[in-house]
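Thread: "does anyone have the structure for this chain?"

Original post by V.I.:
We have the sequence but no experimental structure in hand. Need at least a predicted one for the grant figures.
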Amino acid sequence: MQDRLSTAVDHVERILSTMKIGDMMEILIIAFLVYHIILWIQASRAWYLLKGLAVVGGFWLLAAFFKMHTILWLAENIAPFAVTAIVVVLQPEIRRALEDLGKRNVLTSLIPFDSSRKVDSVFDEKTINEITKACMEMGKAKTGALIVIEHKVPLSDYERTGIDVDGMVTNQLLINIFEHNTPLHDGAVIIRGNRITSATCYLPLTDNMDLGKELGTRHRAGIGISEVTDSLTVIVSEETGRISVAEGGRLDRMNDAEMLKARLRTLLVTPEEEEKGKHRRKGRSKDEK
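Reply from O.Q.:
Generated one for you, tokens below.
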């Protein structure tokens, strides 16, 4: 064992002695690119595609281990077309990443001069109280509202359809946004953590034909976004003032403020989840710069 360790150390020393400055710079550049590609994948839908590919790769390895020749033959013939399909599926994300790269100041992305800028990305109890208070007030006044709260799946694609707000979540701000005859009242508000990121956002409508005919576009949009993401959407009916929550393609009626708060608390992150999300939030904050 000791002989193997000394041999490995000698091998590493020989490699380091032959390395030039250019080689070290090349390693650093590759590491930098790989790191930012991983950050980009985590902050986009490519992360879920990558996990799906990992599952497919696991089946392929299983087929190779048990020598399932038919499955291996299919995989070998489909693989070239799969690469093209992946590029087509990720075309919007790839184009957006290249656009962001062109807009970004490379120097400030490498050296964050504005260290005072922090992103409030943790959904907390105060935000829950503010959303609940705003929804109850709008329900009494029969003011329609559509509030989408981001969870793990990024909502950046839908934010771009609206107008940037970037304000702390308060009941006064939410009420003012959805007030009748105001520029921002039409569309959805997107909340990330403790901040309202965008307003007047367009959401996909659900194709579920089993929904009641009494549900309008606002409810169908709330259900639609919950079908394609893991977000939670709070909907206030303009006709009846009733408050509903759409999640996972389901629409549930909220009977009172405590029921709404209990539902919103399901989005609270644990300390372990917060630690895991730090790298993703760091990548987002750099992209926003």
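V.I.: this helps a lot. The chain has two domains: 2-110, 125-266.
O.Q.: and Residues 4 and 10 are 10 Å apart (CA to CA).
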